[in-house]
Design a protein that fits this description.
heterodimer, B: alpha/beta, Rossmann fold, elongated, binds iron/sulfur cluster, Methylene-tetrahydrofolate reductase C-terminal-like domain-containing protein (chain B), DUF5981 (chain B), 5,10-methylenetetrahydrofolate reductase (chain A), flavoprotein (chain A), oxidoreductase (chain A)
Chain lengths: 314, 210
């Protein structure tokens, strides 16, 4: 077995159920808010994803933000890296920098196309695809070389994860792709947001034989408006009517303070119920909790899951 | 075919302003089929330009220097009298015409892509001239021209029900097409095979056999 360089991988290997969170650097030169969110999340998660310009918006570099989060918030980063903006030279270079400065986890992905973003005329690079990025990391870590075989001075200490989408339709293509990435040496999967336990179960069953730990993604929404926007704008995510209905039900009150509490409680119940059920029925390494300005729910869901699991054990 | 589209007349008209006389070169092959640089389009442009136009010729394939020489020979005097050429052909044809005539070339068309023509008005990009054709491995679907990201190992997370995230889920995802084609051919093992990074250095190419 390969050496564990990060807390994320150590905990997964020790059999501990892990929680990861997510923060998204903005188009800003300030890191304060980022650090604050990371600190708050850090109390509940083992590591925190730092996004790489999602929806192809030119924001602060995920690598710079990952380093800030690790050094100033003391939270381990999972640095997201897309193939969209960098060729293999720049990717190799960033991976060297990441390893040198203590970033131990990267999550590779192709990345939303520039045409969807805020600089829509930018050149789509995609010199490598996400499978080839897995190979790049493996070569750097295992062989101590870049893709062309040039030797690297010093050891590269990085774990590489990949994304998967349980909502994908057709799912079989997605599974075939993940199998190849597992064979190439990807070390963990974090998935796109899942709201439906059957969708998650079907996915976990399909990837079960690949021998790669899976963190199922969830996306608690702090209002039905946000949930509707996600359903509308992110076609790769399926938001079931049932969940929307429960959110609307929780919002159906005049008193604002108790609305917030009811929505939080509803999300806590919905997702901790789903995750603890999955832990019981499938092989699941952890859960990746995303959210749009909804950091406060992360701890509640994590605590809720643990509570439900300990009830079951007793 | 090389698929082209016409630049607006106003753009061409603006471009020819500094010149006293212009000659129009059309293309008898791709641009004729696209109806962008055939006989009808060259004639129409000549009429719209009016007095400044020294004449026009539709060269069978202006990207071929030998054919340029042959087809422009009868128009030698008109070509010589012009100080610029409006090229109603693809970029390769336009540059060959520049090399042949030694005159300023005003591109009259925009070159779009190498593609398939279904009928006039329906053109589909099919090749990016990657220099190493792999469509045997992809069910006959070119990933460079048909996948918006030019990926080599299957679809990205942006495909939804077989449609591509680029352009609002209208176009088919190339990799879902490839998967389905290979499945039908009972060659899914080829889909699952890992394709390592390609040589994408794209150096300018010149082939000279001596
Ligand atoms: S793989 Fe695509 S771009 Fe390359 S030669 Fe074949 S059709 Fe053209
Ligand atoms: S959706 Fe399909 S065609 Fe579009 S970029 Fe992704 S893989 Fe390529």
């Amino acid at each position: 077995m390969r050496e564990a360089f990060s807390r994320l991988i150590s905990e997964i290997r020790s059999g501990k159920f892990v929680y990861t969170g997510e923060i998204a650097p903005g188009k800003t030169t300030r890191v304060e808010t980022l650090i604050e969110s990371a600190k708050a999340l850090g109390r509940h998660v083992v590591a925190c994803n730092v996004t790489d310009n999602p929806r192809a918006r030119a924001n602060m570099s995920s690598l710079a933000a990952s380093i800030a989060v690790q050094e100033r918030a003391g939270v381990e980063a999972i640095c997201q890296m897309t193939a969209r903006d960098r060729n293999r030279i720049a990717l190799t270079s960033d991976l060297l920098g990441a390893s040198a400065l203590g970033v131990r986890n990267v999550l590779v992905m192709s990345g939303d196309h520039p045409s969807l973003g805020d600089n829509p005329s930018a050149m789509p690079v995609y010199d490598l695809d996400s499978a080839q990025m897995v190979e790049l990391v493996r070569r750097m870590v295992d062989d101590g070389t870049d893709l062309a075989g040039n030797r690297i001075d010093g050891k590269v200490r990085i774990h590489v994860g990949v994304t998967g989408n349980p909502n994908a339709d057709p799912l079989e293509v997605e599974i075939a792709k993940l199998e190849r990435k597992a064979q190439l040496g990807a070390e963990f999967i974090q998935t796109q947001a899942v709201f439906d336990i059957e969708v998650a179960e079907r996915f976990l069953e399909a990837v079960d034989g690949f021998g790669i730990p899976v963190l199922i993604g969830i996306l608690p929404c702090r209002s039905s408006r946000i949930a509707e926007q996600i359903a509308k704008n992110v076609p790769g995510i399926r938001v079931p009517e049932e969940y929307l209905g429960m959110l609307r039900g929780a919002e159906d009150l005049n008193d604002q303070a108790s609305v917030e509490e009811r929505v939080d409680l509803m999300n806590e119940e919905y997702f901790s119920g789903m995750v603890s059920e999955l832990r019981r029925t499938a092989r699941l390494a952890g859960v990746h909790i995303m959210g749009v300005a909804y950091g406060r729910i992360v701890g509640r869901i994590a605590d809720g899951v643990e509570r439900k699991m300990s009830c079951r054990v007793r | 075919m090389i698929i082209t589209k016409k630049k607006p007349f106003e753009t061409i008209n603006e471009s020819i302003k500094p010149f006293k006389r212009v000659f129009i070169v059309g293309c008898g092959t791709c641009s004729t089929v696209c109806q962008t640089g055939g006989e009808a389009q060259a004639k129409e442009l000549a009429e719209r330009i009016g007095g400044k136009c020294a004449g026009y010729a539709v060269v069978e394939s202006p990207c071929d220097m030998r054919v340029l020489r042959r087809d422009l020979a009868p128009k030698r005097a008109e070509v010589d009298s012009a100080d610029a050429i409006v090229a109603l052909c693809c970029g390769a044809g336009a540059q060959s015409t520049a090399d042949f005539t030694g005159k300023t070339i005003i591109p009259g068309l925009d070159t779009l892509f190498i593609g398939k023509i279904e009928r006039i008005g329906s053109f589909y990009e099919r090749c990016r001239a990657c220099t190493d054709c792999i469509i045997l491995e992809t069910g006959g679907i070119c990933p460079y021209s048909r996948c918006a990201k030019g990926l080599l190992n299957g679809p990205c997370g942006g495909q939804v029900q077989g449609k591509c995230e680029v352009g609002g889920y209208q176009r088919d995802c190339a990799w879902v097409l490839a998967y389905n084609a290979l499945k039908k051919q009972e060659r899914l093992d080829v889909f699952k095979k890992y394709r390592p990074p390609a040589d994408r250095s794209r150096k300018p190419q010149e082939i000279v056999t001596r």
